[in-house]
Amino acid sequence: MIRVCLVDDQPLFRGGIAMIIDSQPDMSVVAQEPSAIGLTERIRTVRPDVVLMDVRMPGIDGITATRDLVSGLGDEAPKVLVLTTFDEDEAVASAIDAGASGFLLKDAQPDFLLASVRAVAAGNQVVAASATQHLFERHRARAGDPGPEYETLTPREREILVRAARGLSNAEIADAEVLSEATVKTHISRILTKLALRDRVQLVVYAYDHHLV
């Protein structure tokens, strides 16, 4: 069962999303929060797997709340999936930097929303296609050569980093590198550790930041 926490200041929207999620046999809404104030303590209590986080809320915005969850809970932090609208791309890019595992638009179809929650809960990432260009243009503008942390990667790890940054799944990387999926997963984990990255979204951003793809 995927445990979901909704954080949004709009009761009608929050309630609608809750109905969609609770209609699924493998999902359950364990908390609905109208703001991010005191969210870290609330998360410690309800222990969701995924937090659906609105970007713009009174008091504490979704970016700050995401950063607080990631820094405050560390490895025990839930996956954060940011909900946004078309005019908030800049804020969403900041949310990815803060540690969010992905984002999607509030007008997404219910099936896509549910698939996104499942993907994030499974350790994958979701990035709304309409905002991807803005996200990477922002990072490309500040790109530079990789630092000494990149030198700690083995040649095989560097190859896998580039393939992952181009969007290949573990299965596709395994086929390309003639490896098992379990071995690829181990390599990805080591790459994230060596580069001090939280997940594959940050891995992609790192690769774009440093002209690796």
Automatic annotation (TrEMBL):
Residue span, Response regulatory domain: 3-121
Hydrolase found in the keyword field: no
Modified residue annotations for 4-aspartylphosphate: 54
PROSITE patterns in the record: HTH_LUXR_2 (PS50043), RESPONSE_REGULATORY (PS50110)
All copies of domain HTH luxR-type, residue ranges: 146-211
Gene Ontology MF annotations: DNA binding
Protein keywords: DNA-binding, Phosphoprotein, Transcription, Transcription regulation
Designated name of the protein: Putative two-component response regulator
Taxonomic classification: Bacteria, Bacillati, Actinomycetota, Actinomycetes, Mycobacteriales
